[in-house]
């Protein structure tokens, strides 16, 4: 599936079909193995994941060791400190949560770009080994993606997608389901509204010419979302698959 990690941002901007994987565990050896399976990117979850900055740094190093997948980070918040730290660790893109307006999207973009295009502070302690390190090159090689996961963001999707310099939007299905009135993160009673929201985001991204992504519980769902107009999709997570595999082997052993 993937080509070179250095091409990741360009492929994303071109709305090419891209498939990634989600990591929440501080497990560099496991992440290194996942990075060699053929996924286009591995995204480390620094918002809800079970790892700190050293864990994120170790994950980026492990991903780069395989040399095939691009390392990404979902940062804890739309804040220049968190975004800059993730990029300095070597991330080739960030997913920024809880972005509700075009102004907030513009702030995320600015945090990803060195002057004169943005406000990122120059100090690529590790990223300089892989990304850039010249500011103009780094600006081209780093992707900025913001999440659509609230009712406010859904209402402002067109304006968010039109933000200058934004590379893509990404749906957080759990928060979006709750935002649409779901009692749980997987409440099927709001399925019709949820599907309409997906179609709206995919279409607004297409109109703006940027990438549209979504988190998926499995590969089959990822294939379905890509067929529906999304250009990139993330599959499940290491923690979920660890539990599922262990449970399946236990059932087989005790059948």
TrEMBL record:
Protein name in UniProt: Aldolase
All residue ranges annotated as the HpcH/HpaI aldolase/citrate lyase domain in the record: 19-242
Sequence similarity: Belongs to the HpcH/HpaI aldolase family.
MF terms (GO), sorted A to Z: aldehyde-lyase activity; metal ion binding
GO cellular component: cytoplasm
InterPro entries the UniProt entry points to: Aldolase/citrate-lyase_domain, HpcH-HpaI_aldolase, Pyrv/PenolPyrv_kinase-like_dom, Pyrv_kinase-like_dom_sf
Keyword DNA-binding in annotation: no
């Amino acid at each position: 599936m993937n080509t070179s990690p250095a091409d990741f941002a360009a492929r994303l901007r071109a709305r090419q079909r891209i498939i990634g994987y989600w990591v929440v565990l501080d497990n560099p050896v496991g992440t290194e193995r996942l990075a060699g399976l053929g996924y286009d990117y591995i995204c480390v979850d620094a918002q809800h994941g079970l790892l700190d900055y050293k864990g994120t740094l170790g994950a980026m190093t492990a991903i780069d060791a395989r040399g095939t997948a691009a390392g990404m980070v979902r940062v804890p918040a739309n804040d220049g400190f968190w975004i800059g730290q993730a990029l300095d660790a070597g991330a080739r893109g960030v997913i920024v949560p809880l972005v509700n307006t075009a102004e907030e999207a513009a702030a995320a973009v600015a945090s990803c770009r060195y002057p004169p295009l943005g406000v990122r502070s120059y100090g690529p302690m590790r990223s300089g080994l892989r990304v850039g390190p010249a500011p103009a090159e780094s600006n081209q090689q780093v992707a900025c993606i913001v999440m659509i996961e609230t009712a406010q963001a859904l209402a402002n999707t067109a304006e968010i997608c039109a933000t200058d310099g934004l590379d893509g939007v990404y749906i957080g299905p759990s928060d979006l389901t709750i935002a649409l009135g779901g009692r749980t993160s997987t409440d099927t009673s709001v399925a019709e509204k949820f599907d309409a929201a997906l179609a709206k985001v995919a279409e607004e991204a297409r109109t703006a010419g940027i990438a549209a992504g979504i988190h998926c519980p499995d590969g089959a769902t990822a294939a379905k979302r890509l067929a529906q107009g999304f250009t990139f999709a993330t599959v499940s997570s290491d923690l979920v698959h660890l539990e599922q595999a262990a449970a399946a082997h236990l059932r087989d052993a005790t059948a």
